[in-house]
Structure formats: C-alpha cells, structure tokens
Amino acid sequence: MSGTTRPERPEPLGDGAGGPVGEPVRVLIVDDDALVRAGLTMILSAAGDVAVVGEASDGAEVPGAVAAHRPDVVLMDIRMPRVDGLAATETLRRRAGAPEVIVLTTFDADEYVLRALRAGASGFLLKDTPPAEILRAVRRVAQGEAMLSPTVTRQLIAHVAAPAQPSQVRAAQRLDRLSERERDVALALGQGQSNAEISAGLHMSVATVKAHVSRLLIKLELNNRVQVALLVHDAGLV
C-alpha cells in the first residue's frame, strides 16, 4: 500500500527506554471499552516519558481526535461498532504526518495481523501483554522502530515463509528499485533489526541508517519499516 512517510524521530539516549529528551511521547487511546481505556491510561500515565493526550471510542472518531490532540502514537483496538481499527488505521496512515499506530487487541488471527501491518501499523500487541511491554512498544514505535508480540511474529513468519510465486516476483521487482546499500538496509529490516543493529552490522552511523530508511520508503512507496519487512519476506529474501 502506498502512503506518506514521516521523518523518523531522534534516537533516544541511553538504552532507548524513553521518548525524545524533554518531550513525552503523546498517545491517543482508541477503544470502545471505557474500562480498557481507563486501564491503558493508568498504565501509560504512570511513566514520566509518556502522556495520554486523548481518547476515542470508535474508529470514526480517529481523524478528529488526531487533529485535535496531535499524538505521536495511537493505540488502536480492532473491533469497534462503526469503523473498525483496521479501516481507521489504513485511513489514518494515508495522511501526511500521520502518527504511528499500535494495534492492541484480544484477537491474534493471521488475517488481523497481516491486514493491520499492511494498513500501516507499526506494532501489533495482544491486550494481555504485560504493562511494561506495552510501554516499551509505545517508546520503540515513537522512535520509528517496530514492535510485534512473539506470538504475532511467529504467525507472520509462518504466513510469509512461502509466498505465492506471482507475489514473490512482484515484490522482488519492487526491491530492484533500490541501490545496493538501500537493499542491504531493507534486508536488515526484513530480519527485524533495529537502527542500532543495522548501524553495527553495516558499519554506518545511525543517522545514515535513518537516511537510507527514509529514501527506500519513498522509492518503495511505503510508509513504515514494517511494510518494508513484509515486502522483503514476500520476495523470499528472508
């Protein structure tokens, strides 16, 4: 799916446990269950580097809530009464300057995982994920990384391990647009590597890694690194 890329945020200091220096990660919670919203708000607000700036109870409310609160990350439920989280994610991620999206749900079916990631979500977590891991996901996604639960990662790998031949050819042709160095970075993204890991493995600075990621996103007409990883898997390269 084509989309509009947004610049990656600066790398965090130290071990990457927090948001940008002096600026909390702004989070919008979207869920039709008021108790879930309250629980997530309590978890996130307990961290000094994360701020819950707004809530929405349906996907139809997301565009207005994003415009009003300007979050960095949206925690998005899937099943909602009018507009579900998958449709809301796809609509949101098509917009310039869109926030990152983490789908947080009780359902881990393959179809939901792939639809969410192809729609532009940077993370997919189950609602029984421990609070510390939810916080870690918010921080990582705000920094331009991806975050998938181990269960979801296993499902994704199993699903794309043997793509249909026509899809594999099309994916490989798209990757042919990249320079050799951009292709190296794309393969590293397909392996789930972070910017720091790519930097060490390819012997380049983190800033250079980010520049390569931004360029290959433009060339591939994708809007985040998760979609690059899916394309690499579809091409049978990982």
UniProtKB/TrEMBL annotation:
GO terms for molecular function: DNA binding. Transmembrane segments: none annotated. Residues 1-20 are annotated as: Disordered. It comes from the Bacteria. Residues 1-12 have a biased composition (Basic and acidic residues). Residues 171-236 form the HTH luxR-type domain. Gene3D superfamilies: 3.40.50.2300. Residues 26-142 form the Response regulatory domain. Keywords: DNA-binding, Phosphoprotein, Transcription, Transcription regulation. PROSITE patterns: HTH_LUXR_1, HTH_LUXR_2, RESPONSE_REGULATORY. The keyword Transmembrane helix does not apply. The modification 4-aspartylphosphate is found at D77. GO terms for biological process: phosphorelay signal transduction system; regulation of DNA-templated transcription. CDD domains: LuxR_C_like, REC_NarL-like. PANTHER family: TRANSCRIPTIONAL REGULATORY PROTEIN NARL-RELATED, TWO-COMPONENT RESPONSE REGULATOR. This is DNA-binding response regulator, NarL/FixJ family, contains REC and HTH domains. The lineage of its organism: Bacteria, Bacillati, Actinomycetota, Actinomycetes, Micromonosporales.
